[in-house]
Structures are given as structure tokens and as C-alpha cells.
Design brief:
Elements (H helix, E strand, L loop, with lengths): L2 E8 L15 H7 L1 H12 L4 E5 L1 H11 L6 H7 L7 H11 L4 H6 L1 H10 L7 H4 L2 H16 L7 H9 L5 H27 L3 E3 L8 H5 L21 H17 L6 E2 L8 H9 L4 E5 H8 L17 E3 L5 E5 L1 H10 L5 H16 L7 E7 L12 H13 L4 E2 L2 H7 L3 E3 L19 H15 L7 H5 L3 H6 L9 H18 L17 E7 L22 E5 L2 E7 L3 E8 L9 E7 L2 E7 L7 E3 L3 E6 L5 E7 L2 E3 L5 E7 L4
Helix pairs in contact: 1-11, 2-11, 2-18, 3-11, 4-5, 5-9, 9-11, 17-18
């Protein structure tokens, strides 16, 4: 009887920086939603053949919440009574409350009307647009947008979903406490599932592209060479650290781990050998890599090839290699959401049964996909699909549900002569290297390592997570891309600080594009400003270009040798110091901390005035004060405009 295994991959990059601040609340919100849905469904159905792949960087964030080490502004905003919430906390709440899928909006329709009430409002207007009851409803509904599908198992959630609006402070407090408990609850559920026979596997600690860490040149087999050339990065030490730290982390939590899901399904012959050296008994990835290795398709219109039914071992050594059935896996991940959930489960099992009939009776199939991403877009959050799937699998007499560890014990792997290097996307690394921004990310990683960042502990490892490169480039657009760019660079900065090294100035410059074009007047004849920290004459800054944002005003002008900068408070208060100015031109990046770094060329009074050496060529600029960054994302691209009359 043919065998079937399901592998659910659970992962989030680290959104928490070294200071403990959480910059995006996705771990917490999904812990109340999709992660809890899968765990409860697996517990309820108790169906065999399940593998949950828990990445250490994901579990570590759950632990940080459970142990009170995660300083999450969103959680703090939810926990604040409506009458006490500050405009800043209200902005934080609104920032995340409305980043929803259409299916989530449908579950909490009252939330949409609240969104309309604040549409177009500035921070000063928000309190007048939302009364106390509206704010309380917003706090509750922002959580229910994720948690509503779990009403099947959680009485509090069922009660609040039924009520729809008009929530009390007591109900908000109960819900926030429930939310805060979800990360710890999940860890205990995973332990219980492991004790019941669900296999727990893992991934290298911070979810890096291990083949690229070992040598970025491995990508040349499948990625078009960019004009700038491939960025050079190679570190066996880092790759080894991710594997060893993952194994130790899982052991410390009490999980027995035999196999790994390589991040993004990314494998190379060198990576497979490294996993084997550390006792990993199995690895799983996409069928596209097997097809590229064998030189022919293993599924599709021509049917299912027998090669997909068996584990493999590279030249007879190392871990057993399992290759997922892409069609069945992608059906759950991308297509089932279009149907009623019970119907989608029935259609999936019918397709699975048909595929198994094409296999030798001693073969098996692996269905592997994210254990969080699909459910948001399912009509009922995946609850009915998962529970109905479990029921149908138990009733089927055409298959045997086994874990991958069981298969390793039962089946001698076939020998694979060569392994094509690639990921689950097109058996290529193009999603993570090749685009100019992606290459810039690797170059920055290499320069930080050279500067000693690899002695920076966890911050160095989490900066290597695959997700940062996923969001670089233009193939996976998101409105939060600038934030993820900032997080990548902050992890690198944190690593350098932890290593006792100086933070590279270029870390202040975004990897992504999105520069704001800023026309700076250039005059060689107009008298230069008098650097005295006050407005000496109207004319000294009359030729300048002015920028204003968040209560701060900047003036810029140039004379061919210097960039003249004026910083002042729009409310007439003193300038918050220090003022950090980053100027980048090509690979040349200079960072000034003013006034300290420009004695004699910077004056501070009611305003700050400074003259900075003007870099040659195209110039990017970022200005930061203790509480503000201009521009908030990206950088100013300075375009010098001659204003002298001929």
C-alpha cells in the first residue's frame, strides 16, 4: 500500500531587534490565528503521517513572548484602555489592524466601517474620529480578524465573534490576556503533538539559504549573471553554526529531531554533505530539483514517474532525500482556497488517490508546504478543510500515513548520481540572488562579515535569514518592504555592536530603491551661510531647497565643494541633537554625527547649520535625529541644479 506524508513548515523571520523591540507583530497575530488552527486541527484529527517543521527562529520568538522578553508596541496598544491610549499607540494599532486579506475582512465586517472612519486622518485627528467605544471595538476586532476561525476550539473567541461590536473593557482585557498566552500555548501544543506521534523536524537556525552561505557562486548554474557580477560570499563557519545551533536549540526544548526542511527547499551537493556531517538523517525539498538532477520531468501531463515515489541518497552517502509532489502541495497552498473548504478537501483526496494509483505499491508521496500561509485566504480559515481532510484520510483504504522518519527506517534509498542546486521555486536561486538589490544585500553581508559581524551572536545569524532577500527586488512586492530592509540592516548593525566593532556607515542607507528625488540649488556666486546657529540674514538660505516632515524642517544648498544643511524645529523649539547625516555616492558612504564630527563647520543655536564635503557623482542622503528619520523610508536622491545666471 502506497505511503503518504504531510510536512507543514512553520517559520517567521526575527522581527525583534537586539533591544527587544518587536517591529512587526506577525508572530503574535498568527499565533492567535493560523498556527493555532493547524495545531488544534492536528490534535483533533489525530491522523498519522504528519511532520511539523519548526524553525528555531520562529520558536525563539514564541518563547520571547511567553517569557516577557518581546517589547511589542502592538500588544501594548491592545492592552491600553481606550481612554488612556496615546496618539502614538493609536497610530501603531491602526498601522497593523487593517493589513488584512479579504477573507479576514469578511470575518469581522465591523472592522471595515472603522477603517472608513479614520481614512485620510492625520495623527492629530485620530482621537476625534474615534470615540472610546470605537477604539475598544478596534482593539478587539484587530485580534479577532486572525483568531475568529479558532472559535471552534476557543469559547472566548466564539463569544466575542458572536457579539460583533460594543465590547467592554473587561472583554478586551480577557482577549488581550488570551492573545498574550497564545505563544506559550503553541509551544505546549507542539510538545503534545510530538508526544502523540507527530514528527518534529527543523531547519537551520535563522532560515538561511544554506547553499548560498556556503558559496554564492553555486547560483550561477540557474541564475542569469547580472551586469555587476555575482556578489562573493562563502562561509562554511556560518553554515555550520546554523545547523549546530538549530540542533542544540531543539534538543534544549525537548524535541527529538531526525530531519530538516532546508530553508526554501534550497539544496546543493555541498549543503547535503554538511547536513550529513552533523547527523541529519533526512532532507526534503521540491520535485523540480529531482527532475533537474535526473534530466526529465517526474510529474505532469505524462503522469507520475516512479522516481518521485522513493527516497534518494546522493552517491549512496549522507541523508535520505525526499522530494515533494508539487501539484498536490500547491493545490493546498494556492488553489483550494477558491472552493468551499469541505469540497476542497474532497477534491484534494481524490487527486491524491489518483496519484497514488500511478505509483508502485511500495512507494510514497510527500505533500509539503507552509503551515501558516494558506489558511488566511481559506473561506473558514482552513479549519473545515483540515478537519475534513483528516476524516477523509482516516476513511481511505488506498494509503498508509507515515512520517519521514518511518520511511527512512523502512526504505533503502536509491542512489542519485548528481544533485542539481536550487530551491523550491523553479529549481533555481533567482528569488534570492541576481537582482541588483538582492546582490547588494549579499555584498553588504560580506562587508559586515569582513568587519567582524560574525562575532555578533544571534543578530549575525538572523541577518542571514532568507526572508530579507525574498523582499529585495521586484518579484515579491509588499508595502512593508522598507521595514524589512530596515530590519535586515538593523540586525547587521546589532551584530557589529555585539562584536564590539564600529557600525558601518553604509548600514544607514537602504538596500532597496525608492529614493525621493530632491532638487538642491547649486550656486557658486551666492554668499555662503554664516555658521552661527541662527538666521543671520534672510538671504543666506533664500536660495535653498526646503523639506518639512514630522515637525522638522531641513534646508539644503550647495556651492560645488560643500553641501550646506540647516535643521530646525517647525514649532520653534531647539533642534534635537545629535543630528546624524549619511551621504552615499556609489560605494563611498560617509556618516556625520553633528555637531561633534564637524568642529568649526557646524553651529548650534536655535537652529543647526553645517557645511559638509559634497561627494562627487550621484548622492543619497538620510538625516536622523534621536526620534526621527528623514525620509521615513528610503533616502533623498540629491539632484544638484545650477541656479547662477549665465
Amino acid at each position: 500500500m502506497a505511503k503518504v506524508t504531510f510536512l507543514w513548515h512553520l517559520h517567521q523571520p526575527r522581527y525583534r531587534t537586539a533591544d527587544g523591540k518587536v517591529h512587526a507583530p506577525w508572530v503574535l497575530l498568527h499565533a492567535a490565528g493560523e498556527y493555532l488552527t493547524l495545531a488544534y486541527a492536528l490534535r483533533e484529527t489525530a491522523v498519522g503521517g504528519q511532520v511539523i517543521n519548526l524553525t528555531p527562529v520562529f520558536l525563539e520568538q514564541l518563547l520571547a513572548y511567553a517569557e516577557g522578553r518581546a517589547k511589542d508596541p502592538m500588544l501594548a496598544a491592545l492592552a491600553t484602555p481606550a481612554g488612556e491610549i496615546t496618539p502614538g499607540a493609536l497610530e501603531e494599532l491602526l498601522r497593523w489592524a487593517f493589513l488584512l486579506h479579504s477573507r479576514q475582512w469578511a470575518r469581522v465586517p465591523r472592522l471595515r466601517s472603522l477603517a472608513e472612519q479614520v481614512k485620510g486622518a492625520g495623527s492629530e485627528e485620530l482621537p476625534s474620529r474615534l470615540g472610546k467605544q470605537h477604539i475598544t471595538d478596534l482593539q478587539v476586532l484587530a485580534v479577532l480578524a486572525y483568531a475568529a476561525p479558532n472559535a471552534r476550539w476557543e469559547p472566548l473567541i466564539a463569544e466575542l465573534v458572536e457579539k460583533k461590536s460594543g465590547y467592554t473593557q473587561e472583554e478586551r482585557e480577557q482577549l488581550v490576556q488570551w492573545l498574550a498566552n497564545c505563544p506559550g500555548k503553541l509551544i505546549e501544543l507542539y510538545r503534545a503533538l510530538a508526544a502523540s506521534g507527530v514528527e518534529v523536524s527543523t531547519s537551520p537556525f535563522a532560515h538561511p539559504l544554506l547553499p548560498l552561505l556556503l558559496d554564492t557562486r553555486v547560483a550561477t548554474a540557474s541564475v542569469k549573471l547580472p551586469a555587476r557580477g555575482f556578489p562573493a560570499f562563502s562561509s562554511l563557519e556560518d553554515a555550520t553554526a546554523h545547523i549546530q545551533k538549530a540542533q542544540q536549540f531543539m534538543a534544549d526544548l525537548g524535541f527529538t529531531v531526525h530531519g530538516f526542511w532546508p530553508p526554501e527547499g534550497a539544496l546543493s551537493e555541498e549543503a547535503v554533505a554538511l547536513y550529513g556531517q552533523h547527523g541529519v538523517t533526512w532532507l526534503a525539498t521540491d520535485e523540480g530539483i529531482l527532475a533537474a538532477s535526473l534530466g526529465h520531468a517526474v510529474s505532469g501531463e505524462t503522469g507520475l514517474a516512479a522516481e518521485l515515489a522513493y527516497p534518494w541518497r546522493l552517491r549512496g552517502e549522507g541523508p535520505a532525500l525526499f522530494f515533494r509532489h508539487r501539484g498536490l502541495s500547491d493545490y493546498i497552498g494556492f488553489r483550494a482556497q477558491e472552493l468551499p473548504e469541505s469540497e476542497a478537501a474532497q477534491e484534494f483526496v481524490a487527486g491524491l488517490t489518483y496519484a497514488l494509483r500511478q505509483l508502485p505499491p511500495d512507494g510514497g508521496l510527500l505533500v509539503a508546504l507552509d503551515g501558516e500561509n494558506p489558511w488566511t485566504s481559506f473561506p473558514e480559515g482552513g479549519v473545515r478543510f483540515l478537519t475534513r481532510l483528516g476524516e477523509l484520510l482516516k476513511l481511505s483504504g488506498d494509503l498508509r500515513l507515515v512520517t519521514l522518519h518511518q520511511r527512512v527506517i523502512e526504505e533503502p534509498p536509491r542512489t542519485l548520481a548528481r544533485l542539481h542546486p536550487g530551491s523550491w521555486i523553479g529549481a533555481s536561486f533567482a528569488t534570492w540572488i541576481g537582482h541588483e538589490e538582492k546582490c547588494k544585500g549579499w555584498e553588504l553581508l560580506a562587508r559586515c562579515r569582513q568587519a567582524g559581524a560574525h562575532h555578533g551572536g544571534d543578530s549575525w545569524l538572523v541577518a542571514q535569514g532568507s526572508d530579507w532577500w525574498w523582499w529585495f527586488g521586484d518579484d515579491n512586492p509588499t508595502v512593508l518592504a522598507p521595514l524589512y530592509d530596515q530590519l535586515f540592516r538593523q540586525h547587521l548593525a546589532d551584530a557589529l555592536v555585539a562584536a564590539g566593532r564600529e557600525v558601518l556607515a553604509e548600514l544607514a542607507v537602504p538596500v532597496r530603491g525608492g529614493e525621493l528625488r530632491t532638487r538642491v540649488p547649486l550656486s557658486r556666486t551666492w554668499p555662503p551661510p554664516v555658521l552661527d546657529g541662527r538666521t543671520t540674514t534672510y538671504f543666506e538660505w533664500a536660495v535653498a531647497h526646503w523639506l518639512e516632515a514630522a515637525g522638522l524642517r531641513l534646508a539644503l544648498r550647495a556651492d560645488g565643494e560643500s553641501l550646506w544643511l540647516r535643521v530646525e524645529s517647525a514649532e520653534g523649539e531647539r533642534v534635537p541633537l545629535p543630528v546624524k547625516v549619511t551621504l552615499a555616492s556609489g560605494s563611498n558612504v560617509v556618516r556625520y554625527v553633528l555637531p561633534a564630527d564637524r568642529p568649526g563647520w557646524c553651529a548650534v543655536g536655535k537652529i543647526m547649520e553645517a557645511a559638509l564635503p559634497l561627494p562627487r557623482g550621484e548622492v543619497l542622503m538620510v538625516v536622523e535625529t534621536p526620534n526621527l528619520r528623514l525620509p521615513p523610508w528610503g533616502s533623498y536622491r540629491l539632484e544638484l541644479v545650477e541656479v547662477d545666471e549665465p
